From TrEMBL:
<feature type="transmembrane region" description="Helical">
    <location>
        <begin position="167"/>
        <end position="189"/>
    </location>
</feature>
<feature type="transmembrane region" description="Helical">
    <location>
        <begin position="201"/>
        <end position="223"/>
    </location>
</feature>
<dbReference type="InterPro" id="IPR001851">
    <property type="entry name" value="ABC_transp_permease"/>
</dbReference>
<feature type="transmembrane region" description="Helical">
    <location>
        <begin position="84"/>
        <end position="104"/>
    </location>
</feature>
<feature type="transmembrane region" description="Helical">
    <location>
        <begin position="57"/>
        <end position="77"/>
    </location>
</feature>
<protein>
    <submittedName>
        <fullName>Branched-chain amino acid transport system permease protein</fullName>
    </submittedName>
</protein>
<feature type="transmembrane region" description="Helical">
    <location>
        <begin position="124"/>
        <end position="146"/>
    </location>
</feature>
<keyword id="KW-0812">Transmembrane</keyword>
<keyword id="KW-0472">Membrane</keyword>
<dbReference type="InterPro" id="IPR043428">
    <property type="entry name" value="LivM-like"/>
</dbReference>
<dbReference type="Pfam" id="PF02653">
    <property type="entry name" value="BPD_transp_2"/>
</dbReference>
<feature type="transmembrane region" description="Helical">
    <location>
        <begin position="31"/>
        <end position="51"/>
    </location>
</feature>
<keyword id="KW-1003">Cell membrane</keyword>
<feature type="transmembrane region" description="Helical">
    <location>
        <begin position="262"/>
        <end position="279"/>
    </location>
</feature>
<dbReference type="GO" id="GO:0005886">
    <property type="term" value="C:plasma membrane"/>
</dbReference>
<dbReference type="GO" id="GO:0015658">
    <property type="term" value="F:branched-chain amino acid transmembrane transporter activity"/>
</dbReference>
<keyword id="KW-1133">Transmembrane helix</keyword>
Length: 308
């Protein structure tokens, strides 16, 4: 496999793990804009242990996963006392605090960042993405997943039915933080260098877009959203110059057709994003879509059994 496709697959796998880290809190009705903070915690813990103590991969993965999860659990109690836009601002402020602490820490390299000696190829992020995906699908199929959806749909009714809303939200937030930390660990070992400037507010916004536009009603949503936003810019990288040449030939232009600026593919991606918000406000994959697909498959299976 070429280095280009290995890099794309690694990035896709990391984005899927990161998206599931944000999906779990969102599935309980909490908009988490602090993803970059947990991502940075995982990445820097792996980088520090690998660079300073030459720890093996299994230790850095466990450390980043557990540390981000524990911090997520501890801050969930004060942060989840807020609601709506204040919750969004509180999680955003957490990410900014983490970034500020790392930026002013000489131990963590400050603005210069840290090198990461241990490199992992694309097989490791892909394996991690598969495992995390299966875990999230399992969680959403259990009684706890059903309670998460109930809390997301109506907190008041869930409370009346005896659901421990705070416990469900804190658990989902902590597990999501651990997955975001794991994504950071994979990022550190894949790109072998971490610097805090890369863990900014845009990162938190992008991963939240993966989840919201992919769909928050089922576990398929983050998978679709991460794949869409990771792969589509690469598709446009090949399609946009070809479309430019086709249009030039269509209008009879016979001169040299220079390729369009690379930024055009992000302009087109922005247009696609706005159109999706307009025509699919509940996301690409919804619960209704999944149920319709199941209903279509059910009569087909029944007819095959009757034939046999």
């Amino acid at each position: 496999m070429s280095g280009y496709w290995a890099g794309i697959l690694s990035l896709l796998a990391i984005n899927i793990v990161f998206a599931y880290g944000i999906f779990l809190p969102v599935a309980t009705g909490q908009l988490n804009l602090g993803g970059a903070g947990f991502y940075a915690i995982g990445a820097y813990s792996a980088a520090y242990l690998s660079f300073q103590y030459d720890m093996p991969l299994v230790v850095t993965v466990a450390a980043g996963f557990v540390l981000a999860g524990v911090i997520g659990f501890l801050i969930a109690f004060p942060i989840l006392r807020t609601r709506g836009v204040y919750l969004v601002l509180a999680t955003f402020a957490f990410a900014e605090v983490v970034g500020g602490l790392i930026l002013n820490s000489e131990t963590l390299g400050g603005a210069m960042g840290l090198p990461v000696p241990t490199y992992v190829d694309y097989e490791v992020p892909i394996a991690a993405a598969v495992i995390v995906t299966l875990i999230v699908f399992y969680i959403m199929s259990t009684r706890f997943g059903l309670v998460m959806r109930a809390v997301h749909d109506d907190e008041v009714v869930s409370d009346l039915m005896g659901v421990n809303i705070r416990g469900v939200q804190v658990t989902a937030f902590a597990i999501g933080a651990a997955f975001a930390g794991l994504a950071g660990v994979l990022y550190a070992h894949t790109y072998t260098y971490v610097e805090i400037q890369g863990f900014n507010a845009l990162m938190s916004i992008y991963v939240l877009l993966y989840v919201l536009l992919g769909g928050t009603q089922t576990a398929w949503g983050p998978l679709a959203g991460a794949a869409f936003f990771t792969l589509l810019p690469e598709v446009f990288r090949a399609v946009v110059p070809a479309a430019n040449a086709f249009i030039a030939s269509l209008i009879g232009y016979e001169g040299v057709v220079s390729p369009p600026d690379a930024s055009w593919r992000f302009v087109i991606l922005g247009v696609f994003t706005v159109l999706m918000m307009v025509f699919r406000p509940e996301g690409m994959i919804t619960r209704t879509m999944i149920e319709r697909l199941r209903l279509r498959r059910a009569p087909d299976s029944a007819s095959r059994e009757a034939t046999v």
